[in-house]
Amino acid sequence: MSERMVFAHLLRGIGSIFVLISHYVGIFWIMHPDISNLMGAPVISNFPHLTFPLNVIADYCIFFGQFGVGAFFILSGFVIPFSLKNTGTGEFLFRRAIRIYPVYIVGFSLAVMAIFILSYYTGSSFKYSIGDILAHFGVITRAPMDVVRIDGISWTLEVEIYFYIIMAIAGSVILNFNVKGFFATTLLIACICAYYLRGPEYLIGVQIGSGLLLLLGIAYYSFLSGKISRKNLILIELLIFISIMILWLAVTKRASYTIQWMAGYLVAISIFHIGFDLRKKIRTNSILSHFSDISYPLYVVHALFGYTIMYVLVDKGAGVYLAITTATISSYLIAVMIHVFVEKPTMALSKSRGRTLFTSKP
Questions:
Q1: Distance of alpha carbon 240 from alpha carbon 212, whole angstroms
Q2: Strands (DSSP E) along the chain, which ranges?
Q3: Alpha-carbon separation of residue 93 from 97, 217, 239, 346, 348 (angstroms)
């Protein structure tokens, strides 16, 4: 792995851990009625309250989660141009599809299986139809089919897939942006985001706003490629930083989590900036590198799968720490299995078949 990528690889591992903490120590406990409804299970009576230090982490769980998500988006914007540069459009889309869909379909299916089993445990009716489940397999097919999101986390994958499509279509233009191109695109994304944040389609605004982080990652790539200067990179980063603050402080409808969501993004920008500047001094770390390797399957499977485990254990009277630990270990092991038996083979297939299918023969 080149020195320029080590810091990015480690940051992905850190981000995956922060998202896991956000959901397992925070979201499940502070949003128990909503999570129970999502799983189609009754609310547990006498649901336990978190004590110190878990309650402090839970109070800031949105920050932890959005730091991780923000880091993922910046990293994607930074890394994807390298993939696009070395492949044609068709091969790029093929390899991205093989990268995303097999792991998602397997992980999502396991998560749905978990809440299906939970419905038997609770004596409740399973609330999702076969059509609802199949609509999720295409990720971006769910919304056009007017199906409610089941897993709670695929909104980020929707952003990623649309990003891949945009880069496949317009990547040759975007990767040659000068500072004016970055400024104009930042303002365009911010304006479209602002329009949706003020309306009923709030989540669409959040998804569009994620484009600012993707664009920042591209700007870092452009700096490495010599397309923009260090000074222009800082100006672009500052404009994106300010745009996020304006969108979350002055445009969006204020909610209890607004500041934390914004802060998570801004800290992700800051940490990426520091990591990038120190990239020649950062050395690999086996633990963070491992979590980076399994970050995608862990992200896909952990939410509903882990929530189901914690629900049953809490309902049986288990303590908070036992519930969190069991869910964490179980999701980790499943993620490792998906990584070994699904992700690695399909990634190898995408490289070999991609070259075969899209390399012109003399």
A1: 6
A2: none
A3: 6, 19, 30, 14, 15
Residues 347 and 99: beta-carbon distance below 8 Å: yes
For the CA atoms of 239, 244, 245, 251, the dihedral, rounded to the nearest 10 degrees, stands at 120
Residue 273 falls inside a structural domain: yes
- Assess whether pLDDT exceeds 70 at residue 4: no
Q: Is residue 360 part of a domain?
A: no
Distance CA 234, CA 238 (A): 6
**Structure tokens given for 203:** 């989540």
Q: Give the DSSP per-residue string, 244-255.
A: HHHIIIIISPP-
| Residue 298, domain member (yes or no) | yes
**How many Å apart are CA 347 and CA 350, to the nearest integer?**
5
End-to-end CA distance of the chain: 32
**Separation between Cα atoms, residue 163 and residue 159, nearest integer Å:** 6
Q: Are 107 and 300 in contact (CB under 8 A)?
A: yes
**CB-CB contact of 206 with 155 (8 Å):** yes
Structural domain of 44: 3-355
The answer to whether 16 and 295 are in contact (CB under 8 A) is yes
Kindly state whether residue 361 falls inside one of the protein's structural domains.
Answer: no
Q: What is the mean pLDDT of the chain?
A: 94
What tokens appear for 285 in the block?
């770390």
Q: Give dist(CA 6, CA 284) in Å, integer.
A: 6
Q: What's the structural domain count of the chain?
A: 1
Angle at which helices 295-315 and 32-39 cross, to 10°: 100
User: What pLDDT does 362 receive?
Assistant: 43
pLDDT digits (tens, 9 = 90+) for 323-344: 999 999 999 999 999 999 999 9
pTM here is 0.95
Q: How many CB atoms within 10 Å of residue 44?
A: 15
Residue found by looking up tokens 């390899």 in the block: 95
What is the CB neighbour count within 10 angstroms for residue 54?
17
Contact 189, 239 (CB under 8 A): no
- Which tokens hold the place of 297? 């399957």
Tokens of 166: 């945009």
Instruction: Give exposure, 154-168, as e/b (b: 16+ Cβ within 10 Å).
Output: bbbbbbbbbbbeebb
